[in-house]
Protein: DUF58 domain-containing protein
Amino acid sequence: MSRSPERARWRGWFAARFDAMLRRARSDPDGVVRIGARQIYILPTRFGLVFGAVLLVMLLGSLNYQNNLGLLFTFFLAAVALLAMHHAWFNLLGLELQARPGAAVFAGEPARFTLSVRGRGRRARADLRLSGAEDAAAPLAVPGDEQRGCALAVTTRRRGWQPLGEVRVETCHPLGLFRAWCHTLPQAATLVYPAPAQRAPPPLGTGAGARAQPLGTGGGVEDYVGARDYRHGDSPRHLDWKAYARERGLLTKQFEGEQGRELWIEWAALATADPEARLTELARQLLDAAAAGARFGLRLPGVEEPLAAGEAQLQRCLTRLALFGQEGGDDH
Structure:
């Protein structure tokens, strides 16, 4: 039993050394990954190993029976296999890969990245397969000197910048006898907002400094002005469940009494001890204030976002929450 931790330590050490030895294609200053000759790995597939074993049996049989026609056929198939190996290698050589991040998401949602693949020259590229750590795209065929795109998703677990990470490009073209692949590191990162809490205390209104009434609780029927399409993060108490039961889709109620209110979303106004939990409550307050059409601002330790309204203000404040306390977060 005492040897198990030691073995695990050595396995981890060898895995780290092997990973450091891998030749990866990295992004240029312009953000494009160009696959070079020394970054392509190639090995036979299972079908290729079986094919090689069959060729060996044919060679031994032809030599044993001195069958010249059998030898000719064996060497012909071996030449075809060698050509397939070179074509698999050339299928990746010179490819250009560029990644673009998708829209910002909340923690727990998948971050999506768009990848563009371009083949330089007139040679068409077939059966290109791109995969990340958690997702794989459908095979691509890229005509000569043209560009094709695909998408990969990465699961987010915490706020901040979520990088795409390593993307493997591989191919088994043309005969499936060999698999050529390359490890690439595109430069792309998506912003991840803190996941909004299910509920949060009402924020402070301007003026007397007392807490405002919970958003979305208009005092009478005259306050209701209509409904809009549901947006992620809308409070469940704002949802129009009767419309949903009538199969009209998921809608969010809006109240006229909430329009024009001024609210401060403040770090110091919350009593939650855990900083990350406090950020989730602030995210919920921001979403509720934006859904109500109020003017709102954000106050964090050392940071203040002035009062404003609208989607742009919401994105600015959520960005402040996502990067709060993270050094170098604004450099992306």
Remarks:
- Residues 68-92 form the longest helix (25 residues).
- The helical segments are 3-21, 46-64, 68-92, 241-245, 275-291, 311-323.
- The chain has two domains: 23-191, 204-219+257-331.
- The longest strand covers residues 110-119.
